């Protein structure tokens, strides 16, 4: 009976409860969050424009070890298993302030490009069995995507994620962090795509660039 009552309550909840809300707009970066059914932690969506071409941005995304230079709180990142040029498993270790334990995540990352729009999407899904859990580190989960669209001489980026960090983190603190993560990540991403090593990197083998006009 309680389960039925809960379901009926959800049906009559205002749609605005799960609507996106603007949390931050600064330096050309916008961050929205929304509630997620069954979770105390909000989902975030960050958007920005990068002064780069699509090939440069994809080169940055494929350089997993250097995520530590721009992905907020990242202490380590590596592709632990590469299935093909589009699909791999990535291990990410995030630092967390003392006295909390660091968090790690293992994600299944899949590259896909829309043949009509040219938009590139990296989908991220959590996996459990690829990397064993480690003592003193709490295993969390990440689900979301990166999306990149070339518009003129810029790339529009969308970074959308819902994470369950595992363990015990006060919800009030966690929901502040979900604003900082996309903002700081996109801010540093803007800087990294100007580096020569990414500008001059070979094109991703599966990337189709728009025809020159």
Automatic annotation (TrEMBL):
> Matching Pfam families, A to Z?
START (PF01852)
| START domain boundaries | 20-195
InterPro entries this protein is in?
START-like_dom_sf (IPR023393), START_dom_prot (IPR028347), START_lipid-bd_dom (IPR002913), START_lipid_transfer (IPR051213)
Any GO MF annotation of the entry: lipid binding
Q: Which domain of life does the protein's organism represent?
A: Bacteria
How is this protein annotated for GO cellular component? cytoplasm
Tell me if Signal is a UniProt keyword of this record: yes
Q: Keywords assigned by UniProt?
A: Signal
Please list which residues make up the signal peptide.
1-19
Q: What is this protein called?
A: START domain protein
What organism is this sequence from?
Leptospira sarikeiensis
């Amino acid at each position: 009976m309680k389960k039925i009552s809960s379901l009926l309550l959800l049906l009559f909840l205002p749609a605005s409860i799960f609507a996106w809300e603007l949390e931050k707009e600064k330096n050309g970066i916008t961050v929205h969050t929304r509630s997620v059914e069954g979770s105390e932690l909000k989902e975030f969506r960050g958007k920005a424009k990068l002064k780069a071409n699509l090939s440069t941005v994809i080169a940055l995304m494929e350089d997993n070890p250097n995520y530590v230079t721009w992905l907020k709180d990242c202490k380590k990142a590596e592709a632990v298993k590469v299935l093909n040029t589009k699909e791999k498993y990535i291990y990410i270790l995030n630092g967390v302030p003392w006295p909390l334990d660091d968090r790690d995540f293992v994600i299944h990352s899949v590259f896909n490009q829309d043949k009509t729009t040219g938009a590139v999407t990296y989908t991220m899904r959590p996996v459990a069995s690829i990397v064993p859990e480690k003592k003193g580190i709490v295993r969390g989960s990440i689900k979301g995507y990166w999306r990149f669209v070339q518009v003129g001489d810029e790339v529009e980026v969308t970074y959308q994620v819902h994470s369950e960090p595992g363990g015990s983190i006060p919800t009030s603190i966690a929901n502040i962090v979900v604003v900082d993560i996309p903002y700081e990540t996109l801010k540093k991403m803007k800087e990294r795509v100007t580096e020569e090593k990414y500008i001059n990197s070979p094109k991703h083998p599966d990337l189709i660039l728009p025809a020159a006009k």
